[in-house]
Amino acid sequence: MKYKMTIAYDGTHYGGWQIQSNTLSIQEVIEQVLFRLTQQQIPTIVSGRTDAGVHANGQVAHFESEKSISLKSLNSLLPPDIRILSLEEVDPSFHARFSVKEKIYRYHFCTSRVQSPFERGYTLHCLYPLNREEITSASTHFIGTHDFTSFANELDPRRDPVKTLFELSLIPTSSGFTLKFRGNGFLYKMVRNITGTLIDIGRGKLSEKCIPELLALKSRHKLSTTAPPHGLFLDSVVY
After folding, report:
1. pLDDT band at 148 (very low <50, low <70, confident <90, very high)
2. Is pLDDT of 135 > 80?
3. Identical fold between 2-90 and 102-238
4. pLDDT in tens, 208-234
5. Phi and psi of 219, rounded to 5°?
6. How confident is the model at residue 176, as a pLDDT?
7. Which architecture does CATH list for 2-90?
8. Domain boundaries along the sequence of the chain
9. 103-110 average pLDDT score
10. Which residues belong to the active site?
């Protein structure tokens, strides 16, 4: 049987999704629980890895098991900062990574002078002024189909650097704003690098004219600021 999991997690205390030798990961914790339930080593395949400190409201992964597994049993063994929101049997052709049509990420900003302690680990607190009009205008340069090599920290030669960004919008919130990214795929740290560039534009450190130049350059060596991980959420994955 092939299972599809929709997962929410607080990434604060984890070294990202992917199993690593020197730090605890989301994948490792979930696979340990699957082993306890089945006494079998069951690999999980995810829609895309998230970095250390990045959160998720709707990450998706699949796994295969001959044994029946329930949502209740999974969550009963997981720590409180990882939850399986839904668990369903899917067609054998489903693939958590290769069946993806769209992903939505959100990066949260607090621009209030005083940040709520309940937002501290989940929004970037900006004590400097940010020009929202400049950020909104600059965001339009990223929309469409581009080679995003310049905005990736590492580039797997097997992965196509050409991605399509359907939406990059600024949404006001009670304490600041959120940047919403909707696209057909994202390179490693692409969202955080774009966000860091938009921060520098909002602060007046860069002009939006640099974006077409960076895209055309197709080089990672001219990257500006990378936004910290704690403000970023993988919001949902569309199939």
Report:
1. very high
2. yes
3. yes
4. 999 999 999 988 777 778 999 999 999
5. -140, 140
6. 97
7. 2-Layer Sandwich (3.30)
8. 2-90, 102-238
9. 98
10. 51
State the Cα–Cα distance between residues 171 and 150, nearest whole angstrom: 25
Distance CA 33, CA 42 (A): 10
What are 66's two structure tokens? 């001959």
The first and second tokens of residue 7, run together, are: 């997962």
Separation of alpha carbons 5 and 75, rounded Å:
12
Ordered DSSP codes for the chain: -EEEEEEEE-GGGSS-SS--SSS--HHHHHHHHHHHHHSS----EESS---TT-EEEEEEEEEE-SS---HHHHHHHS-TTEEEEEEEEE-TT--TTTT--EEEEEEEEE-SSS--TTTTTTSEE--S---HHHHHHHHGGGSEEEE-GGG-SS--TTS--EEEEEEEEEEE-SSEEEEEEEES---TTHHHHHHHHHHHHHTTSS-TTHHHHHHHH--GGG--PPPPGGGEEEEEEE-
Cβ-proximal residues to 86 (8 Å cutoff; 6+ apart), any chain: 4, 5, 6, 71
Strands 55-64 and 144-147: unpaired
- Domain 102-238 matching CATH 3.40.50.1580: the answer reads no
Is 82 exposed, middle or buried, given 0-12, 13-18 or 19+ CB atoms closer than 10 A? buried
